[in-house]
Structure formats: C-alpha cells, structure tokens
Amino acid sequence: MKKKIAILGSTGSIGKTLIEIVKKDKKNFEIILLSADENYKELLKQAKTFKVKNLIIKNKNSYKKIKNSKYSNKIKIFNNFDCYKEIFKNKIDYVMSSISGIEGLKPTIEIIKYTKNVAIANKEAIICGWNLIDKELKKNKTNFIPVDSEHFSIWYALKGIDKKIIDKIYLTASGGPFLNYPEKKFDKIKMKQAVNHPNWRMGKKISIDSATMMNKVFEIIEAKKIFNIPYNKLSIIIHPKSYVHAILKFKNGLTKIIVHDTSMKIPIFNSIYSSNRIIDSKKLDLEILNNLNFQDIDLKRFPIAKILNKLPEKSSLFETVLVSINDKLVKLFLVNRIKFTDIFKKMNNMLELNEFKKFKKLRVKKVSDIMNLNNKIKEKLKKTVK
C-alpha cells in the first residue's frame, strides 16, 4: 500500500529535498497535498510529476496565474489553509511542514489531526507555539519528528534513553562566514558577505541568522521545548566543519556524538522512512574526525548568544517577541537600512523595554495571541527604526 503524504512548503529547500527523495521511490508514495507561497511554476511542475490532486498557493497573484493554467481543470487549487476538511477524509501517513516564518504555525497545528506522523522544519512554529503543537500531538496521538539536523540528531540519540541521566547536550555551530573575520570590520559587513555560509546553501534570512548566531539561539530554544530540557543542560559549541551535529553527555559517564554528511537529506530521509532504510551517503571522513576543532563560543564576536540569559524557563509570549524583533531587523539589514552589528544592538535594547519584558509571564493560549503580538512588534519597529 502506498504511503499517503502531504508537503507544506514544497517549493522551499526542505520541500524540494523531500520531493527528490520521494521521486526515487514513486511507486511507494501518493502525495495528497502540496503547498507554496508564490512559486506556482515549481508547484505545478511537482503536481504534474506526482499527479497531485490538491494544491494550496497563498500569494493571490500566483493563485490567479495557476488557476489560469490548463492543468487547473484537473485538480483542486486553494488560496488558503481552510481546506483541510475537504482534502483529508482519513488520517494520512506523513506530513512535512516546512513553511517558513510565524505564518507556518496555524497550518502546522491544524494539519496535525489529519496525519499519523508530522515532521516539522518550521523554527518559528516550534519556538512560539510549541505548547499548542504539543497539545494537538497528544490529543490526536500524532507522532512528531524534528527535521533540523541538530534536533533530529538529539531525537535519534535519545531513543530508549531516560532523560533523567542527561548531563549536558551540546548543539554545534559552524561559526558561519565570520568565525575568523576581524572584529574591527564587523561594522562594515555587507549582505553578500553575511549570506555566504561556508558549509550550507540556505535562504537569505536563515543565512543572516547563522552569521549572527541567532539561528543557534533559536535552536537552543527549540531543543528546550521539544525535549523538555532546562536551559542549563543545553549549550552551544563551535564546530567549523558542521560534521558533528549534536553531542550528548550522560551522567553514567557515556557520551554520544551524532555525525552525518553536511546535508539536510539525511534527517529528511530518516523522518519519512524507518531507520533501517538504506540511503547513499559518503564514507566516514577520518580527516574531519581527526580535526574536529571544537571551540567555546566567543561572546564578543557573537554577542547575540547572550540573549539566552534573558529567556524565561517557562514557555511564554516572550519567545514571540524575540522571533518578531529578529525577523524585522534581519529584513532591515537585507535592504541596507541598518548595519550588521545593529541587529544585536537594537534587539538587545528592545528586549529590555518593560512593554516587552512583561510577556515573560504570559503563556500562549491560542495562535491569535502570537499573530497579534507579532504584528504589534513589527509596527513598533517600523516607527522606531529610521
């Protein structure tokens, strides 16, 4: 029997990687739904390849264009995510949620009831709304698989392990393009330099987050929420080669080190197949293993990591404050409105404002709490950042 799946965000890098994996094994998969924001040409191409009957495309102009295509007569095309009831008659086997940004939270939460397994690659959804996601997972008995290479590595390493014996978990960070860049030149960093990651090919937003180290701050928050582990048991360690993805030290004296190729294909492949399935991968790289070059994080070079000290231990709306401020500041840097170093400076100043610090004590009760706060913060930044 074919495995029935859906891919939210199928035209992004995660979605495309999953599409390529499934393409090599088409006889065993039936794609029920694909979604995209505006790349309707790629979405149509994917739909034709897999004979997908349901598409969601959010952008209104792209929606109009895809509706005018000859292929649209053979399928159902929707302009929003309020169509799940019409699409899913029974629980499907697997959903990949790889929509980027806070906008991906609502469709991720709402699709959980329609699937047996959900793999989530949306950082913002987990950081801002994990308690809402977790509630739906438990309510609908849906299995969750994290897709980020670090979180997948931790998830894999913790199988069958009592979390009480965890001493420390280290998430590795490459250091990005500025690990050895002269600090005195940070004020003059340009966008093209910041998006030029030495190990990973990623979108501009996540590349900037990697360059500032904000991406790793987000991953620490994700790990805390997903695995219910306190912040004092989570740490960032610099590993320039991005070969080791997580290190888990246990109180019984043992340590697990999870290694895999610098490719998102590994965690994505293992999220959709059982762990005994074979994938083509490179031989163990002894040259890298003999020169892992682990380093403590330099807080002068990456001051944004200090933000971890401001975070409340209990989940709150403050995480939405953090995500929203960072999102807007990165966009301002990408259009040359602020300096690279302003991202941390302005973020740090805003996080100290009483009007935002109060959210540390406020729990997330519904998706609209997150969306309304996100809009409020972005409006404030429009007025305050010249």
Mean pLDDT: 94
Radius of gyration: 21 Å
Derived structural class: alpha/beta
Shape designation = globular
Instruction: Compute the number of helices.
Output: 16
Question: How many DSSP E strands?
Answer: 12
Uncertain regions spanning at least 5 consecutive residues: none
β-strand percent reads 15-25%
Domain count, please report it: 3
Give the termini distance in whole angstroms: 58 Å
Estimate percent helicity: 40-55%
Helix and strand sequence: EHEHEHEHEHEHEHEHHHEEEHHEHHHH
Order of strands, widest sheet: 4-3-2-1-5-6-7
Largest sheet features: 7 strands, parallel
Describe this structure in words.
This protein has 386 residues and is of the alpha/beta class. It starts with a strand and ends with a helix. It folds into 3 domains: 3-146, 3-Layer(aba) Sandwich (Rossmann fold); 152-304, no CATH class; 312-386, Rna Polymerase Sigma Factor, Chain: A. The model has no long low-confidence stretch (mean pLDDT 94). The chain has helices at 13-23, 40-50, 60-67, 84-87, 105-111, 123-140, 149-157, 191-194, 204-212, 214-227, 265-272, 286-289, 318-334, 342-351, 354-357, 367-384; strands at 3-8, 29-36, 54-57, 76-78, 94-97, 117-120, 143-146, 166-173, 234-238, 244-250, 255-259, 295-296.
Fold topology:
Blueprint (H helix, E strand, L loop, with lengths): L2 E6 L4 H11 L5 E8 L3 H11 L3 E4 L2 H8 L8 E3 L5 H4 L6 E4 L7 H7 L5 E4 L2 H18 L2 E4 L2 H9 L8 E8 L17 H4 L9 H9 L1 H14 L6 E5 L5 E7 L4 E5 L5 H8 L13 H4 L5 E2 L21 H17 L7 H10 L2 H4 L9 H18 L2
